[in-house]
Amino acid sequence: MFVAAGRLDEAATIYLGALDSEDWRGPALLLAQEYPPTLHETQIGRDLASQWQLLLERPQVRAAILRVGRIESFDIVRP
Prior knowledge:
This protein is mainly α.
């Protein structure tokens, strides 16, 4: 919700907490992975993805991700 509202400071705090939690680390790392945009993505979806990317590019967020996992790019396209 904070990402969608553009409140990236609050979103970063929550996301960093999730990365530190053994229970939430897996789902948090899954959100950091890079996938191609869908064919029928809406403007709202593009805006949310843009805000999420801004969050992931923050140095403290990037460092926390790399401390507990990694970010990979998946070029998955439907036939």
